[in-house]
Design a protein that fits this description.
The structure holds 2 protein chains of 2 kinds. By secondary structure, chain A is an alpha+beta fold. In chain A, 32% of the residues lie in helices and 25% in strands. In chain A, the strands form 3 sheets. Chain A has a 6-stranded mixed sheet with strand order 4-3-2-1-5-6, sandwiched between helices. Chain B folds into 2 domains: 148 residues, 3-Layer(aba) Sandwich (Creatine Amidinohydrolase, Chain A, domain 1); 229 residues, Alpha-Beta Complex (Creatine Amidinohydrolase), CATH 3.90.230. In chain B, strands 4-3-2-1-5-6 form a 6-stranded mixed sheet, with helices on both faces. The longest helix of chain B has 24 residues. Classes of the chains: A alpha+beta, B alpha+beta.
């Protein structure tokens, strides 16, 4: 859950960058003939909102309203008591609280000329919220839109890439400690929680998962400011004991996937490279599959992403190989990398920050 | 103490039978021939209740027909084995979002006439469209309340899980107090507490925090603010053990407490005591809230019990951390074995926002406080102000 550091710092992201993101969305809305764009957010999936405004919605749900012209407003079911904190930690000035979206949207559209309301990422909106918007705006056309904000988030800005690099460096150090041999699972998680939340991560999910032959994996998914990373490493049963051949082959599969990352390739291509590279037999009944998930989709684990999407140059993606065992066990290896001109690049590599 | 989530046995067959018979009785009472429990990433309590499995996908569903075997769906492949391995639901299928053709086909086969959807209010448009396509003639109604009611009365097994959460609450609070010192940023407090909770086996934790003086109006995620001598640091810690959340609410002072902070504690403690004093089987959430708020009204602080300054006077616990609200106007009956926290947390001008509360289970004759942490105003280094 989002219970780590939330901060708005113009030294990290220049003051004009977020208004620029809103302006680009407004241009897209205008191009689509939309008068008022609405972006839904809940505590599980709120990165569009964070990207545009730096607002962290740590509980409940809300709608960011972005008119084609003018300032955005945030409509929420949270109490006005938190408005002060929201103003301090985001770029928003127009905050509106209420018990339901109907009255909030009514307040938004009254005194405006009727037009077109666009629902960003409409397929993921709760159907009842869509009904509330329709009920609140009779005479307006309500139109589904695709991921107009996500498309901006696919390639991080220089400032975002710096933050991701900082986060990756902290993660690398913490993971070295958290994957030391012969630690209890809870201790591994505690080491990573202490180090990464202590380094300023906002959200963190650390899992220690288990496969056969005593092999474990430590998987860390974290959010630093509004960028996401995931790294997973295998852990041998004991100090001095080598990983079994199938586990070593899983690591080789990850290397093959990384090697296939390149601008313009479909997300499915590195995944296929991993699966093709895996020639060692898995334990009976196990299934291996590889994925490439954009960091922009990591709050939902890539559950809604398309494997057919091409990797944009400069995008940051998670390359992962996962093995599922018939007893419900699982191990995984993963890296978060930048799609460089010549292939996958580590986020904390010096060339990123030169 | 060394508690590990992985060491916990899952609920047994009797627990499964208890839950499904309870849910199916409620379905019959409500004229439902099909129940669909939807679990988005932040509201998975019903999925866990019906599968006893910890899923991680962004969207999962459990389909319970009035008769016959249930089915489960998730957008995440790793969930399928986890659910199947628990064995409560063996028909487990990957949900092909957004088309959701597997759900459409299942509904066509079952041809229900009245479908209850738990968390209908959160159901994505794409899945709502799939239900309409698979069961075009069916009436679709909300079953959120149906499952909320089913989950409210805890079994012995569930109470055992919540007692484990209570032990971790206490340990988490102790760590919180131990690390407080001038110069420490808020987010580092959270890092230390999170580490302790996870070390003890917590799956997750919900935690808000606030530090400072009488200007503090509420709690939020942590910021970079550095603690100062005399700050009151408020928190609600809510660890989740084997699915079950439980909360502790306390405040601590960095250094020695001021007279105002002590007076604030006395007011809030009296309100907690008043709330607890009325708890018995059959009491309503409204009546508990009134008992708490009457203390504030008695001393002339009634306006600080309104939505301008506070949210709720407590809330239920279980597989969701924020179940039925303890608030004036909520006439939900709290039966024996319901678990909730009594916390009159609010702002007053005495010493700013104050946080204090204990979770309880309703017993046959009254209540039992589930945590052992003293209800006092803590001072650091470790001490007690009031």
């Amino acid at each position: 859950m989002k219970r780590g550091l939330v901060v708005l710092d113009s030294a990290e992201v220049p003051e004009q960058e977020r208004p620029g993101r809103v302006a680009r969305l407004q241009q897209r809305l205008t191009d689509e003939g939309v008068t008022l764009g609405l972006v839904y957010a809940d505590v599980h999936r709120s990165d569009d909102l964070g990207y545009l405004t730096n607002l962290c919605i740590y509980w409940n749900e809300g709608i960011l309203a972005v008119p084609a012209e003018g300032e955005p407003a945030f409509l929420m079911k949270l109490s006005p008591r938190v408005h002060g904190w929201m103003r301090r930690s985001s770029t928003l000035t127009d905050l509106r609280s209420g018990k339901g979206f109907t009255a909030l949207v009514q307040g938004l559209v009254e005194n405006r000329e009727q037009g077109v309301i666009g629902l960003v990422d409409a397929a993921l909106w709760p159907a009842t919220a869509v009904e509330e918007v329709r009920a609140a705006a009779p005479g307006w056309e309500v139109r589904p839109l695709g991921g107009l904000v996500r498309e901006q988030r696919l390639v991080p800005s220089t400032a975002e890439l710096d933050l991701l690099g900082r986060a990756a460096a902290a993660l690398r150090t913490a993971l070295d400690a958290g994957t030391a041999p012969d630690l209890p699972d809870g201790e591994r998680i505690a080491i990573l929680e202490q180090a990464l939340r202590g380094a300023g991560y906002t959200d963190l999910m650390v899992e220690v998962v288990h496969g056969p032959d005593g092999v474990s994996a430590v998987e860390v998914t974290g959010q630093y400011r509004f960028g996401w990373l995931r790294v997973a490493r295998l852990v041998a049963p004991h100090a001095g004991v080598a990983l079994p051949s199938w586990a070593a082959a899983v690591q080789n599969a990850l290397a093959a996937a990384r090697g296939a990352v390149a601008p313009g390739v479909r997300a499915a291509a590195p995944a296929a490279a991993a699966e093709n590279a895996f020639t060692t037999g898995l334990p009976s009944g196990a299934v291996l599959h590889a994925t490439v998930v954009h960091q922009a989709d990591l709050s939902t684990g890539g559950d809604y992403a398309s494997p057919d999407e091409e990797l944009a140059p400069g995008a940051v993606v998670v390359v992962g190989v996962e093995v599922l065992f018939p007893d419900g066990g699982r191990v995984a290896v993963a890296d978060t990398v930048r799609v460089g001109v010549t292939g996958a690049e580590d986020l904390d590599a010096e060339e990123q920050h030169a | 103490m060394m508690l590990k989530g992985n060491d916990v046995n899952g609920a047994d067959d009797a627990e499964q039978e208890l839950r499904y018979s309870r849910v199916r009785a409620a379905m019959a009472e409500n004229g439902l021939d099909l129940l669909l429990a939807y679990g988005p990433g932040w509201r998975r309590e019903n999925i866990r209740y019906l599968t006893d499995a910890r899923v991680t996908g962004s969207a999962a569903l459990v389909l319970v027909p009035a008769a016959g075997e249930p089915s489960a769906f998730s957008v995440r492949p790793a969930d399928l084995g986890v659910i199947a391995q628990r064995g409560w639901v063996t028909d487990v299928v990957r949900l092909d979002f957004p088309a959701s053709t597997v759900l459409v086909e299942r509904l066509r086969d079952l041809a229900p006439s009245r479908i209850g959807v738990a968390h209908l209010e959160l159901l994505p448009q794409a899945i709502a469209d799939a239900i309409a396509a698979g069961a075009p003639g069916a009436e679709v109604v909300s079953a959120t309340g149906l499952l909320d009611d089913a989950r409210m009365v805890k079994s012995d097994w569930e109470l055992a899980q919540m007692r484990r959460s209570a032990a971790v609450c206490a340990a988490g609070w102790q760590k919180f107090v131990d690390v407080l010192e001038p110069g420490l940023p808020e987010y580092r407090i959270v890092a230390e507490v999170e580490a302790e909770l996870k070390r003890l086996g917590a799956e997750d934790n919900f935690m808000l925090i606030a530090s400072g003086g009488d200007e503090v109006m509420g709690m939020t995620p942590p910021g970079p603010r550095l603690l100062e001598e005399g700050d009151m640091v408020r928190t609600e810690l809510t660890p989740q053990m084997n699915g079950y959340w439980l909360q502790i609410c306390r405040s601590a002072v960095v250094g020695r407490a001021s007279d105002a902070q002590r007076r604030s504690f006395d007011l809030f403690n009296e309100a907690v005591e008043a709330g607890l004093s009325v708890v018995r089987p059959g009491i309503t959430a409204h009546e508990v809230a009134v008992a708490e708020n009457d203390v504030f009204r008695k001393y002339g602080y009634g306006e600080y019990c309104t939505a301008r300054y506070t949210r709720v006077r407590g809330h239920g616990h279980g597989l969701h951390l924020d179940e039925t609200p303890i608030i004036e106007g909520n006439h939900t009956v709290l039966p024996e074995r319901a678990v909730f926290i009594v916390h009159p947390n609010t702002y007053t001008p005495i010493a700013g926002y104050h946080v204090l509360g204990d979770p309880v289970v309703v017993t046959a004759t009254g209540y039992e406080v589930l945590i052992e942490t003293e209800r006092v105003l803590f001072e650091t280094p470790q001490g007690v102000a009031a």
